[in-house]
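User: I'm preparing a small set of examples for a lab meeting where we compare how different chains pack in three dimensions. I only have the primary sequence for this one, and I'd like the structure in token form so I can line it up with the others. Please keep the answer compact; I'll paste it straight into my notes.
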Amino acid sequence: MAVGFSVTSDEAAAVQYSGKMTSYVVLSCMMAAVGGLLFGYDIGISGGVTSMEPFLNKFFPEVQRKMVEDTKISNYCKFDSQLLTLFTSSLYIAGFFASFFASAVTGAFGRKITILLGGSAFLAGAALGGAAFNIYMLIFGRVLLGVGLGFTNQAIPLYLSEMAPAKYRGAINNGFEVNVGIGVLSANLINFGTQKIKAGWGWRISLSMAALPALIITLGAFFLPDTPNSLIHRTNDPEKAKAMLQRIRGTDNVELELQDLIKANSIAKTIKHPFKNIMRRKYRPQLVMAIVIPFFQQVTGINVIRFYAPILFRTIGLGESASLLSSVVTGVFTSGSNFVSMVVVDKLGRRSLFILGGVQMFLSQVMVGAVMGAQLGDKGGIEKVYAYMVLILICVYVAGFGCSWGPLGWLVPSEIFPLEIRSAGQSIVVAVGFLFTFVVAQTILSMLCHFKFGIFFFFGGWVVLMTAFVYFLVPETKNLPIEKMDVVWREHWFWRQFVKESKLETP
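Assistant: Understood. Below is the structure token output for the 507-residue chain.
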């Protein structure tokens, strides 16, 4: 039984389009991928400010009291507060609902307008958060940030996959996750600096600085061209799509790709209810991937590190400044591994990186759990040598995620949907991602309190399951044109039973 493959059939070989990587595509995708900075900056900044004592004193004094004064409470439970986790998780439940509105906007007005609206909402949320004087203002700012991310995360991965030539699509799309990593690292550096402001208002700078990437993507969106796929879908004008294809591919010979776009658009125009249509049997593989991949991305355990790394490092006995500096170190490893993935993803393929990253994450998680279980009790700290051992192992873990489930969790879903369900499919991806990010963010500190070091074994078990899922059920998608992706499902040992009747069905 074949469990995985690269597409090498004559059918797949015959669908390679003409064209090259042009500067126009590079510049457009670089600007669009800056939207990843929004996501990454917020991920990094929230965990940092929640470990700052002035921020805790102003908004969460009970958490601050437990951390400083309560000597009886377990190391693992000092930060367990549903209100504190609501500060982080409120963004993601807002993004969950916003992603469905973003689907309608993306389909009706294009990827460019969706990115513009998302950047504007994020800009407003950053301003409100930085100026917050009570918990309600703080949470409402987070909700606006969530709306912004719901829109940008819906549109940007689609934009990148549609603009990129097939053989460079992985590298171009991974630019989004590279920017997520840079955003996390930037936030960690800013937190490390603002924590040292003696007057205690450094957290305001940390929160309001999110306006900078939001301003870049909002202004940049005005200059982004629309993708040929979006143009032909919204205007039904093949000449406009052809002109854009010729410009972004750097050749006049775009007829093969144009005809595939026209064919995909003719099918898409017959679909009145894309969310209902995606439930049909012929789209079962895409629907499963749209739900399972973002779910697995969240249960890797990465958000234990991304959201609450400074809190985790304080749990094992590091000071406030040392904890924030340790988060900077993990951010460097994340960004570096994102770049590695960007370079090799179109050569090694998606499946190889998924599996290699899964093995690396599992081993490092088990070792972190073992060290904390053996050396950190409920009271007191941990010897410095073991604290730094935990830090090193976490760096190994985030590097594994940065090469695999980080970028590929966005890349693979964005390239597998046919045009007629593409906007709906991407909305499901974003919504599922936000929903389970909310669940993890809202429960993670309580889980840390109850599971203690066992939390790393818990997430390690999920990593084993998701790696097996990739091995058996995720086909290789590298180098295949996005409008010909149906080939991988028809040739897959399991999914072909669902799509074999697709030629007999009418939309």
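A couple of notes for your slides: Confidence is low (pLDDT under 50) at residues 4-14. Residues 419-451 form the longest helix (33 residues).

User: Perfect, thanks.
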